[in-house]
TrEMBL record:
Domain Inhibitor I9 as annotated: residue spans: 3-71
Native species: Sordaria brevicollis
Stated family: Belongs to the protease inhibitor I9 family.
Protein name: Inhibitor I9 domain-containing protein
GO terms of molecular function: endopeptidase inhibitor activity
Higher taxonomy: Eukaryota, Fungi, Dikarya, Ascomycota, Pezizomycotina
GO aspect biological process, one term: vacuole fusion, non-autophagic
Pfam (any one): Inhibitor_I9
């Protein structure tokens, strides 16, 4: 299943973050890892689900979850 990192706006409250996570679940997704140093979490969606977090009022950005390497 595709996985995405959802970054929330710096001024998003805990309630707004929870609402965003609830919206992921309503769209058929699951919440994976939840980050503590930044306002972000992993959203996992089935292949056939279309999601619309890019336009969510509390979301700063959505990007594909991928492995990061350093040299």
């Amino acid at each position: 299943m595709p996985s995405y990192i959802v970054s929330l706006k710096d001024n998003a409250s805990d309630a707004e973050i929870q609402k965003t996570k609830d919206d992921v679940v309503k769209q058929g997704g699951k919440i994976g890892h939840e980050y503590t140093l930044i306002k972000a979490f992993q959203a996992i969606y089935p292949d056939d689900v279309v999601h619309s977090l890019d336009n969510h009022e509390h979301v700063k950005g959505v990007e594909a979850d991928q492995e990061v390497k350093t040299q």
